[in-house]
Write a structure and sequence with these properties.
- It is globular, with a radius of gyration of 15 Å.
- The chain has one domain: Spore Coat Polysaccharide Biosynthesis Protein SpsA, Chain A (Alpha-Beta Complex), CATH 3.90.550.
- The strands form two sheets. Strands 5-4-1-6-8-7-9 form a seven-stranded mixed sheet, sandwiched between helices.
- Helix 1 runs parallel beside helix 3 and helix 2 runs antiparallel to helix 4.
- The chain has six helices and nine strands.
- By secondary structure, it is an alpha/beta fold.
């Protein structure tokens, strides 16, 4: 799959980590017979993103319907994956929705809400749950460079967002999604007992 210019927001799924506390890469985990990486791509596509890019690192992955971006520096943390993904976006991409592979209760509706906020003028839109900012996050093109510059270690976009609260449009999503993540075997067991939406 090759990258062409995007008319609307692209999707960027960060899926490079080794899952050290879990004991295996999260991208390859299966819930309900579907790998987390495939679920994340489907969520972004169904939410209105195109193209969708997946940043991979610890485990090589092939994903139908997405472009895989290798991150050789994945061991340094999420910041390097965000930088790699932003650098790989197609020319002229107007905005990107960034999601994490280990949050399978994020839904297409949450992604759509961020894109709707962008359509209404938001330049940075963040999904919130009970008033707390989490993921996914939409970033307009004019902020790509600053977000990449601030992305270090495991912070991802958080450093930029905290430094520029005046740019952030909060988008309530608690009624349609949840930011629960899978970090440990106990987390995975909990998700298995209560599958994602």
């Amino acid at each position: 799959m090759t990258l062409r210019g995007a008319d609307g927001p692209a999707g960027l799924l960060l899926a490079a980590g080794a899952g050290s506390r879990l004991g295996r890469p999260k991208a390859l985990l299966e819930l309900d017979g579907e790998r987390l990486v495939d679920r994340g791509v489907r969520t972004l596509r169904d939410g209105g993103c195109g193209p969708v890019l997946v940043v991979a690192g610890a485990a090589p992955v092939e994903v139908i319907g997405a472009v895989v971006v290798p991150n050789p520096g994945w061991r340094t943390g999420m910041g390097s994956s965000l930088r790699a993904g932003l650098a790989a976006l197609p020319p002229g991409c107007p905005a990107v929705v960034v999601a994490l592979v280990d949050q399978p209760r994020i839904t297409p509706e949450a992604v759509r809400r961020l894109i709707e906020a962008y359509g209404e003028g938001a330049r940075v839109a963040v999904a919130t749950y009970a008033g707390r900012p989490r993921n996914p996050v939409l970033i307009a093109r004019e902020h790509f460079a600053a977000v990449a510059e601030a992305a270090r270690g495991d912070a991802g976009a958080r450093t930029f967002l905290r430094a520029h609260p005046e740019l952030v449009t909060p988008v309530p999503c608690a009624d349609v999604a949840a930011p629960d993540d899978i970090d440990t075997p106990a987390d995975l067991e909990a998700f298995t007992r209560r599958p994602p939406r």
